[in-house]
Design a protein that fits this description.
By secondary structure, the protein is an alpha/beta fold. It contains twelve helices and twelve strands. The N and C termini lie far apart (64 Å).
Length: 320
């Protein structure tokens, strides 16, 4: 068993510095901390408490690593995952990284030291905030640590992903919207925000190629004038995004007929819209698949988790 004293000797520091660095104590300089983490990883260090106090080195806990608790859809996933894991004898620990890059990196590093048997990760709302996380995520994959991205995932990573079949979901939603014979399709999916938004926008672009209606992307701070058309489809991930767009562009949309398409729910009134369609994702099935795969990997380290598991959407609703 590798001891702190051996790591300290290799790094040329004292044992207390090593102990603090491995706990990500802010009193340790960043370059010293990086050096100690790298050395501990290279030497195969495992904290004594994990080896001594836990039977077989297992904690029977799974981390659920999320940005915050404000999203009700994340709460749904956490509830479903907790239920599935409990039936297999695992506890779910909800860990917040507060959409903060440093906190995210700190928690990813801690996954190497035996404090949990595996992790489910919901990626950032905006991956542009997380420039340095790729190396840490790839390191998890190289070490065969049981980890899965759930719902929102990262760009350019080989870590397994369980998410909605976004192409099929967009295709079904678009079929309902185009059935209303619109003159224009506007999409509010922000491909620079996260990979769910990117996947939905990409799917819509492909599906609109052979359609007669003009297709316009209006995201972020774009100020392009809305194209002509009396009857307009507006597609977005959420009701909030649609309402923010309508408020900002209200003068241009006056006297136009609007057909709305969103994901998961529409809680507000449906007037003055012609129709509102909602594509509901199947979070229960998503959680079931992710937990089943993760448990299989924990129990059998040679089990290969598929790179991507895509879950069909649950339902297509017209809200009235």
């Amino acid at each position: 068993m590798i001891r702190l004293k051996e790591i300290a000797s290799e790094c040329g520091v004292n044992v207390s510095t090593v102990s603090r660095a491995l706990k990500d104590d802010p009193r340790v300089k960043a370059d010293t901390k990086t050096k100690i983490h790298a050395m501990a990883s290279r030497m195969g260090y495992t904290p004594n408490w994990a080896a001594q106090s836990l039977k077989g080195g297992k904690t029977n806990t799974i981390w659920f690593l999320i940005a915050d608790l404000f999203n009700p859809l994340t709460a749904q996933l956490a509830t479903h995952c907790s239920h599935e894991l409990a039936q297999a004898g695992f506890d779910l620990s909800v860990i917040l990284y507060h959409n903060n890059q440093d906190r995210y990196a700190h928690l990813l590093r801690r996954l190497h030291f035996g404090i949990t048997d595996g992790t489910l990760i919901i990626g950032s709302h905006n991956f542009n905030y997380f420039k340095k996380r790729g190396e840490l995520i790839n390191d998890l994959q190289e070490r065969s640590f049981p980890a899965i991205f759930l719902d929102r995932f990262e760009r350019e990573t080989d870590l397994p992903i369980v998410t909605t079949h976004h192409f099929a979901a967009i295709s079904a939603l678009l079929k309902n919207l185009l059935g209303e014979s619109p003159d224009l399709v506007i999409n509010l999916f922000d491909s620079g925000k996260n990979m769910v938004e990117f996947s939905r926008r990409q799917a819509l672009s492909v599906l609109m190629k052979d359609k007669p209606q003009p297709h316009q992307s209006l995201t972020g701070n774009q100020t392009d004038q809305i194209l002509p058309g009396k009857k307009i489809v507006v597609l977005a991930s959420s009701e909030i995004r649609v309402k923010a767009f309508l408020e900002k562009r209200s003068p241009e949309l006056e006297n136009r007929e609007l057909i709305i398409g969103v994901f998961d729910h529409w809680l507000g009134p449906t007037t003055p819209f012609l129709k509102v369609f909602v594509c509901q994702q199947d979070f229960k099935q998503m959680a079931y698949q992710a937990c089943s795969l993760l448990i299989s990997r924990i129990k059998n380290p040679t089990f290969e988790i598929p790179t991507r598991t895509q879950i069909p959407h649950k339902a297509m609703l017209q809200v009235s």
